[in-house]
Amino acid sequence: MKGIMSKTDVEKIYDLLYEHFGPQGWWPGDSPFEIIVGAILTQNTNWDNVKKAINNLEQAQLLNPHSIHKCPREKLAELIRPAGYFNIKTKRLKNFIDWFIENYQGQIENFETVNTSILREELLGVNGIGAETADSILLYALNRPVFVIDTYTARMAVRHQLLEYEIDYHTLQEFFQSNLPEDVQLFNEYHALIVRLGKDYCKPKPKCEKCPLNELPHQIAGFGN
DNA sequence: GACCAGGCACATC
DNA sequence: GATGTGCATGGT
């Protein structure tokens, strides 16, 4: 995949975002397991709604794999209702938990010996876990050096013309990973900053006036997508 | 009321 | 292989 920007440009974007927004402190969550639950619940959903669902789970003492495993679907669905798509997300959460307990005894530590690309394939094998959710789990819950792509990333790439063509998930991921040092903390902060950019400026109806990326050399603000 | 939010699987052509 | 659709709550 051919990017029209240089390695230093990709790092320049990071610098601009970091200067503008500062550290984002991702992922919000107190444990790897909570981060995984959040990653599933936040699919196509506002994070504020996810927080309500996670609070409900915490109040019900369900923020651990075995408790969710034993929890009836109806009760689980009711607790995560604020996160939207609660029926499908109940299935997805259960699918993950079943796999996690079956293969790893519900122990996060048991992931440690598994190669990242193998683990990624295994996660993708769970119905309801796609590329972004798998990568979010790998990066934010398990500290693996995997760059997370989301709708904001794709939108930014189009708006700011990072690539000449092909903006599918894998291409975008390769673009960032091949132009950056393999650094978990960098990947963590970079994706979080892109989401912040998306929320503040790179929206479906763009607000480009004060976008920190206006300083980019190739920038064409407000077009695309 | 319309639009949007830190996707994904599945149906259909 | 590409494109369309269902899933759902809550804030702006």
Summarize the SSE layout with pairings:
Blueprint: H1 7-21, H2 32-41, H3 47-59, H4 65-70, H5 73-80, H6 86-104, H7 116-124, H8 131-141, H9 151-159, H10 169-178, H11 184-200
Helix pairs in contact: 1-11, 2-3, 2-8, 5-6, 7-8, 9-11
The protein binds a DNA duplex (13 and 12 nucleotides) through α2, α3, α6, α8 and α11.
Structural write-up:
By secondary structure, the chain is mostly helical. The chain has two domains: 7-25 and 148-215; 32-141, Endonuclease III, domain 1 (Orthogonal Bundle). 56% of the residues lie in helices and 0% in strands. The longest helix is centred in the middle third of the chain and has 19 residues, at 86-104. The chain is globular, with a radius of gyration of 18 Å. It starts with 6 loop residues before the first helix and ends in a 25-residue tail after the last helix. Residues 220-225 have low confidence and may be disordered. It binds a DNA duplex (13 and 12 nucleotides) through helix 2, helix 3, helix 6, helix 8 and helix 11.
Estimate what percentage of residues fall within beta strands: under 5%
Number of strands: 0
Largest sheet: none
Q: Distance between the terminal alpha carbons, to the nearest Å?
A: 20 Å
Number of helices: 11
Q: What would CATH call the class of the largest domain?
A: Mainly Alpha
- How much helical structure, as a percent, in the residues? 55-70%
Structural class: mainly alpha
Which fold name fills CATH's third level, the topology of the largest domain?
Answer: Endonuclease III, domain 1
Characterize the overall form.
globular
Just name the CATH architecture of the largest domain: Orthogonal Bundle
- List the helices and strands in order: HHHHHHHHHHH
Radius of gyration: 18 Å
Taken together, the total number of domains comes to 2
What integer is the average pLDDT?
Answer: 93
Which residue ranges are poorly predicted, with pLDDT under 50 across at least 5 consecutive positions? 220-225
Q: What is the CATH homologous superfamily assignment of the largest domain?
A: Hypothetical protein, domain 2
